Amino acid sequence: MNIVVCVKRVPDTAEAEVAIDRSGQGIDTEDLVYDINEWDAYAMEEAVLLKEQIGGTVTAVTMGSEDDEEVLRRCLALGADNAIRLTDPAFDGADGHATAVALAAAIERIPHDLIFTGVQASDDGYGQVGPALARMLGMPHATLVTNLEIDGRMARVRRELEGGLEETVEVQLPAVLTIQTGINEPRYVSIAGIRRVARREIPVQGVAELGLKPDQVGAAGSRIEVEGLSLPEVGQKGEILEGSLDAVTSQLVGIFASKGWLK
Fold it and tell me: Which of 2, 48, 167, 233 has its C-alpha lying 20 to 30 A from 57's C-alpha?
């Protein structure tokens, strides 16, 4: 079973003071800590678990700069067999579609039975790369996968639906699956594992190596254009109404009336 996992290095903004950068089209990342995208960590763990159960290879692929090689070495330390970095100035400014174009061109050259992506990336939240990859590669796909079983050339997956519902579907391999958090428990990267892969050479591919044209990728090949970002306005604090039911109801009606919400 040959599995390709698409991973991304993202800034950790959970407890950081986020500011818009000078361009107005992104956030200031100068003082932010970077790590592997949370959903991608679960995807990598699921790939390694499958490899341990039924054999095969795991290849990690990322699109980014030399700094993004950090997540590939993490994947190698976790149990991936190979890693590929897609780097080219032409890739800058890519949305989900343009990212999928570059990834698809790379994956076509890699033996694969399964392709994993995270459900989405925490920095943009597009959630488009997995389904777009499936379309470009002509494969079936399933999104929001929370459980996976392999039976020969068939993948039996449980996936999330709206409203807390789930469904189980069978997907013929090769296929693309987008992995949801909680499907497993990602293992920690050991220091020994990191040292083991520290000097390993990671192939780098650009537009020329992938057989693409610059206008197919990056900002030129994107379907979405970010015109500007802004931070949410800080609103007024919530007001707690106290008293009996009749008293609270009367206060609430008064507030609605004062704001012109009652007609």
Answer: 167
